[in-house]
């Protein structure tokens, strides 16, 4: 699972142009960028669906679990 504060994607110093996806925490969505091919970080996904399932869906699932437990307490 990705940390709550996802770093900006790192293109890296290499000259490749590999289409990738990253999670933009401010926008709350996955966005496209071109990865150079080396020295990136973990905010780098091959497919948009990978980014969504790792960063957005898990976050939504956590909120649902929290809401469920809060309703049990009240």
Commentary on this structure:
This is BPTI/Kunitz inhibitor domain-containing protein. 35% of the residues lie in helices and 19% in strands. The chain has 74 residues and is an alpha+beta fold. The protein has one domain: Pancreatic trypsin inhibitor Kunitz domain (Factor Xa Inhibitor, Irregular), CATH 4.10.410.10. The chain has a two-stranded antiparallel ribbon with strand order 1-2.
Give a nutshell description of this structure.
Helices cover 35% and strands 19% of the residues.
Salient structural properties:
74 residues, 1 helix, Factor Xa Inhibitor, two-stranded antiparallel ribbon, alpha+beta
Question: SS-based structural class?
Answer: alpha+beta
Largest beta sheet: what is the strand line-up?
1-2
According to CATH, what is the class?
A: Few Secondary Structures
The CATH architecture name reads: Irregular
Give the name of the CATH superfamily. Answer: Pancreatic trypsin inhibitor Kunitz domain
Q: Any idea what the shape is? A: elongated
- Binned, the helix content reads 25-40%
The run of helices and strands is EEH
Unreliable residue stretches? none
The proportion of residues in beta strands is 15-25%
Radius of gyration: 15 Å
Largest sheet: 2 strands, antiparallel
Mean pLDDT: 83
Number of strands: 2
N-C termini distance: 29 Å
- The number of helical elements comes to 1
CATH topology: Factor Xa Inhibitor
Keywords: Disulfide bond, Protease inhibitor, Serine protease inhibitor
GO molecular function, one term: serine-type endopeptidase inhibitor activity
Domain BPTI/Kunitz inhibitor: 12-55
Protein name: BPTI/Kunitz inhibitor domain-containing protein
């Amino acid at each position: 699972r990705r940390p709550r504060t996802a770093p900006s994607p790192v293109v890296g110093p290499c000259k490749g142009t590999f289409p990738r996806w990253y999670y933009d925490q401010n926008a709350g969505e996955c966005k496209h960028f071109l990865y150079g091919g080396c020295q990136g970080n973990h905010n780098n996904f091959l497919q948009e669906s990978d980014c969504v399932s790792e960063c957005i869906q898990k976050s939504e699932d956590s909120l649902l679990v929290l809401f469920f437990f809060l309703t049990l307490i009240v």
